[in-house]
Design a protein that fits this description.
alpha+beta, 2 helices
Length: 101
């Protein structure tokens, strides 16, 4: 994204006030969110919905640090793929998840 390009972001999951912080000398937008809560979800790579407990979410929260944030789940030829590949990040990446608890 060019330095002067504007982008509108709707923060429906925001749980706190957004702010800017410096990371490696670059200003970033920081938005506290609740990304997932205990309940039944249907992961894109699963055949059926599944229950995810709060305990499991708490134990796994740290594994989301460093993961890319994309708008819409990426796919190649209709098959859902990870957003961790450089090719996908270049096209769809917009942020990174950090400081999960």
């Amino acid at each position: 994204m060019a330095d002067n390009e504007l982008r509108m972001i709707v923060l429906t999951g925001a749980t706190g006030k957004s702010r800017t912080e410096l990371l490696n000398g670059v200003e970033h937008l920081v938005v506290p969110v609740v990304a997932l809560m205990e309940g039944v979800i249907h992961p894109v790579n699963a055949k059926a919905p599944e229950f995810v407990s709060g305990k499991v979410l708490q134990q796994a929260a740290h594994t989301w640090n460093g993961r890319p944030l994309v708008l819409g789940h990426p796919d190649i030829d209709g098959v859902k793929v990870s957003a961790n590949s450089p090719r996908i990040l270049e096209k769809k990446g917009s942020a990174t998840i950090s400081d999960t608890t």
